Amino acid sequence: MTHSMRTDTYSSHPGGGDWRDTATRYALLPLRIFLGVTFVYAGLDKLTDSAFLKDSGAGSIGDMMRAVRDSSAIPALIDLSLKNPVGFGYAIAFGELAVGLGVLVGLLTRLAALGGALISLSLWLTVSWASDPYYYGNDLPYLMAWIPLVLAGAPVLSLDAALRARRRSGTGEYR
């Protein structure tokens, strides 16, 4: 009687494999949840803060942009936002909300993550550019955190994955 030893410990099917397979499949989920919740919160915080969405005054988007104009990497970007600071404040708030919701539910995740990266990049080049040393500014780490989601999307527990599975099955039904 011959006995053989199984050497293929990694499985390609969703229910099989060892803990490393599972950890690999779900590795981006904590990042999605953190960034999604953070951006939804940031967007809602801006929309519900009556002082923020004003042209001037304590805590307003207008005063904040004027305060960082001379220390930003791209003063022209600040000048553009100062043409309509309230509109810019709404755009940032709704952008953060859309990005956060998109990443949380996993719908058009790569596009939402790209939006989050662009928001973080613009904030890094304007608001937190003067942070010294650079790692005291929080926008650069957010920018770097978005990159894995831009590259990989949301492979599990997402609407993107459900739609992909539906397309693959060819039946039009979710599996």
Q: Mind explaining what this structure looks like?
A:
The protein is mainly alpha-helical and 175 residues long. It is 61% helix and 0% strand. The chain has helices spanning 19-25, 29-48, 61-68, 75-82, 85-105, 109-126, 139-152, 159-169. Helix 2 (29-48) packs antiparallel against helix 5, helix 5 (85-105) runs antiparallel to helix 6 and helix 6 (109-126) runs antiparallel to helix 7 (139-152). The mean pLDDT is 89.
Helix content: 55-70%
Distance between the termini: 41 Å
Largest sheet: none
List the quaternary state of the chains.
single chain
Shape: elongated
SSE order and pairing:
Elements: H1 19-25, H2 29-48, H3 61-68, H4 75-82, H5 85-105, H6 109-126, H7 139-152, H8 159-169
Helix pairs in contact: 2-5, 5-6, 6-7
Keywords:
175 residues; mainly alpha; elongated
Summarize the structure.
The chain has 175 residues and is mainly alpha-helical. It has helices at 19-25, 29-48, 61-68, 75-82, 85-105, 109-126, 139-152, 159-169.
